[in-house]
Structure formats: structure tokens, C-alpha cells
Automatic annotation (TrEMBL):
<keyword id="KW-0812">Transmembrane</keyword>
<keyword id="KW-1133">Transmembrane helix</keyword>
<dbReference type="Pfam" id="PF23352">
    <property type="entry name" value="IFT52_central"/>
</dbReference>
<feature type="transmembrane region" description="Helical">
    <location>
        <begin position="6"/>
        <end position="26"/>
    </location>
</feature>
<protein>
    <recommendedName>
        <fullName>IFT52 central domain-containing protein</fullName>
    </recommendedName>
</protein>
<dbReference type="InterPro" id="IPR055460">
    <property type="entry name" value="IFT52_central"/>
</dbReference>
<keyword id="KW-0472">Membrane</keyword>
<feature type="domain" description="IFT52 central">
    <location>
        <begin position="19"/>
        <end position="65"/>
    </location>
</feature>
<dbReference type="InterPro" id="IPR039975">
    <property type="entry name" value="IFT52"/>
</dbReference>
Length: 108
């Protein structure tokens, strides 16, 4: 081959002589020269394909609270407010003589 043939470059800077060299190499080794097959790319899908639910989800009832429920008004109320609440309870029932002992016990 002439010197100028070595200087010819193909598309994307591929040396044109390399194609001839590889074809002759196939003949020397004894392999069949077959054209390359196109392999379709398999891209990774970031999410699985969408499949809508057939049945609506069933939501369970919430569990009861782990701690006891406290009346914060009773816990943080002053003595005057607690006394007013006790007297209001006694006035609502209209049974003052029975509630009087209850009221006196609670006040002490």
C-alpha cells in the first residue's frame, strides 16, 4: 500500500486501513466475517410501571393513646378556680346538704 493510504482518515477519526487489516485478520484466523447486529438498548426504569389499585385501601382505626388523658384545667388551676368549680358542681345538683360534706372534704 502506498504511503498516502495510511494518511486517510475516515469518519470520526477512524483509520480506514484498520477495516482492511481486520478483514484480513479474520481470514488468517479462519473466522467468518459477519456484519454486526444491532442490540436494542435496555434502559433502567426509575419507577415501576403504574398499576392502579383495584380495591380501595382499608384504613384501620387508630389505637387508643398510650398515656392517660388528664384534665389540664384541674391540674394547673389555682385553688380559687378549683373552689369555684366545686361550688358550681354543687349548685347544679341542687342537693346542697349532701354535697356540703363532699365540698368540705375536697376543700381541705
Amino acid at each position: 500500500m502506498n504511503r498516502w493510504f495510511y494518511r486517510i482518515w475516515g469518519l470520526f477519526s477512524v483509520f480506514v486501513l484498520s477495516v482492511y487489516l481486520f478483514q484480513s485478520l479474520y481470514d488468517k484466523i479462519g473466522l467468518k466475517h459477519e456484519p454486526l447486529t444491532l442490540v436494542s438498548p435496555a434502559f433502567q426504569v426509575p419507577m415501576p410501571p403504574f398499576a392502579p389499585a383495584i380495591f380501595a385501601p382499608e384504613f384501620r382505626e387508630l389505637a387508643p393513646p398510650q398515656l392517660e388523658l388528664f384534665d389540664l384545667d384541674d391540674a394547673f388551676a389555682t385553688h380559687e378556680i378549683q373552689l369555684a368549680q366545686l361550688t358550681n358542681r354543687c349548685d347544679r345538683t341542687r342537693e346542697w346538704p349532701k354535697d356540703r360534706t363532699f365540698l368540705l372534704r375536697r376543700v381541705k
